[in-house]
Specification:
About 15% of the residues lie in helices and about 50% in strands. The chain is mainly beta and about 500 residues long. It has one domain. The longest helix is centred in the C-terminal third of the chain and has 15 residues.
Length: about 500
């Protein structure tokens, strides 16, 4: 008998991806060239906003939500039913599978700035930021989904390599102190040091899975190797008589003030930035962010598993006749099979400190002044984490038609998608500035087809915004009419 796993349902697994998709490569491409928004300094520490002093509205100066994945959208998974299900939504297994790439990524990020301050002194610009950051990532290979969808019949005589599962989640506090200096008329440089306090972490350090099916199909060999490290308030790790993990107890009551104010998991990171003015119309930009790591010392656990299981078929011979004295329920046979698999893939644990690097981001771009009020920008972004690279490319038009109103319109190619239209708006009334920025406003218009959705918004207090200079070198319609001067482009 051929031991083949045919047409295994993916509904449960797809539900996992729906959970990820319901939450909101972290991107700030549209923000990068909106330099009258002080938060642009967070993506290039060399940037010096116009105003002499800015103070972020406490806990409301910057709220950032981001969701992205590299392959599928909601409408690849959920579609309208046909026939007797025409009035229902159904899971489209084939649509989901066809949308997958060789390796697939699902990312989600949240940032909340508790306090922000910027001060300009002659050629220098100093910043202080206190930010809460959460970053979650999941990756998987298409080969695993192919096996679950089609079974192993077509894999006879070869090994199906499922690759590994990437599972990473980090929550930490960040205190960042930055300095930017205008070296001369051409060069501006910036550096930002960050002290990090880790609160919780989950890091899949090693993962590999494969299944071999013999040519005859009579033998299936499943291999799995996993190494997961976590820093979580685990009350107890239960073990069996052989010392292998059989229970993990996490008590929600442990998520108290001591947990959130933990300072044992310290880290450090560095941001570097540079701006070069080629001529009066053209500027070049480069920055590299989050060069650093966090060492997780408190509540550190390592869970490892390395084993293989050979299946030569289940014995159903005693499950056909319920009157047979040796009759066995099918459920009992299945449970025995499950126990055999579990015995071969036991998990061991130990307490241990470990370090995890931050996702490093590299930005390269430039702007060129067009006309009197608009500059055009191009920006590439590369993110490196766990040896994997994700890239994006953005083009933008940035305008400041009025003194207290600036806008940006961007187009981004990211996550194998080409329908990402971004928009940014910053307006100011007195000292209070409000801004809202997204790299893909199309996600709000067509959420079912979006693979990227993010938004950043907040309030700042701006002081000493060069009113005299603006009246002299305006970049707005009204000042240009009054003073007959060429606008100032920022």
């Amino acid at each position: 008998m051929i031991k083949s796993f045919q047409k295994i349902s993916l509904s449960g697994i797809i539900s996992l991806f729906l959970i990820f998709s319901a939450s909101a490569q972290k991107m700030n491409n549209t923000l990068y060239f909106m330099q009258n928004v002080p938060q642009s300094n967070q993506v290039n520490p060399a940037i010096q906003p116009d105003c002499k002093v800015f103070v972020g509205f406490p806990a409301l100066s910057s709220i950032y939500l981001n969701y992205s994945n590299s392959s599928f959208a909601y409408n690849n998974i959920i579609t309208d039913g046909t026939g007797i299900r025409k009035d229902s939504l159904v899971v489209d297994v084939n649509g989901f599978h066809d949308a997958l790439k060789t390796t697939n990524f699902v990312n989600e990020q949240l940032e909340l700035t508790l306090f922000a301050l910027g001060i300009k002194a002659k050629d220098y610009y100093f910043t202080l930021d206190v930010i809460e950051k959460e970053d979650s990532r999941f990756s998987f290979d298409k080969e695993l989904m192919t096996f679950l969808k089609d079974g192993n019949y077509d894999s006879r005589g070869r090994t199906s390599n499922w690759g590994g599962l990437g599972l990473d989640g980090t929550y930490y506090h960040e205190i960042a102190l930055g300095i930017s200096k205008k070296v001369n008329s051409k060069w501006t440089v910036g550096v930002k040091g960050k002290v990090l306090f880790g609160i919780a972490n989950m890091h899949m350090e090693d993962s590999d899975m494969s299944v071999f099916t013999s040519k005859s199909g009579d033998e299936v060999i499943l291999k799995s190797r996993q190494r997961l490290r976590v820093s979580l308030p685990i009350n107890q790790v239960g073990t069996d008589s052989q010392g292998f993990v059989n229970d993990i107890n996490i008590d929600g009551n442990d998520y108290d003030s001591n947990f959130f104010l933990n300072t044992d998991n310290k880290g450090f990171a560095l941001d570097l930035g540079i701006i070069y003015q080629m001529d009066k119309k053209t500027n070049l930009y480069a920055s590299i962010l989050d060069i650093g790591a966090i060492k997780w010392k408190s509540n550190g656990y390592e869970f490892t598993q390395d084993g293989s299981f050979t299946w030569n078929g289940a014995d159903w011979s005693q499950s056909g006749n319920s009157n047979d004295p040796n009759y066995r329920e099918i459920e009992d046979v299945f449970n025995d099979l499950t126990d055999s698999i579990v015995d071969q893939f036991k998990v061991s644990d130990k307490t241990d400190a470990y370090s995890v690097g931050l996702p490093t981001k590299i930005y390269l771009g430039g702007t060129h002044q067009i006309g009197k009020r608009v500059n055009l920008g191009a920006l590439s972004r590369t993110e490196i984490f766990n040896g994997k690279i994700q890239s994006s490319l953005s083009f933008s038009a940035n305008a400041r038609f009025f003194r207290n109103l600036s806008t940006s319109l961007s187009y981004t190619v990211a996550n194998n998608s080409y329908n990402n239209l971004g928009f940014g708006l910053a307006t100011k009334a007195g000292p209070l500035q409000f801004y809202v920025i997204s790299d893909n406003v199309m996600a709000a218009i067509h959420p079912n087809s979006a693979r990227l959705a993010n938004i950043r918004f907040g309030f700042n207090f701006l002081f000493g915004c060069r009113n005299k200079t603006i009246a002299k070198n305006s970049c707005s319609f009204e000042e240009e009419r009054k003073n007959k001067k060429k606008p100032l482009y920022k």
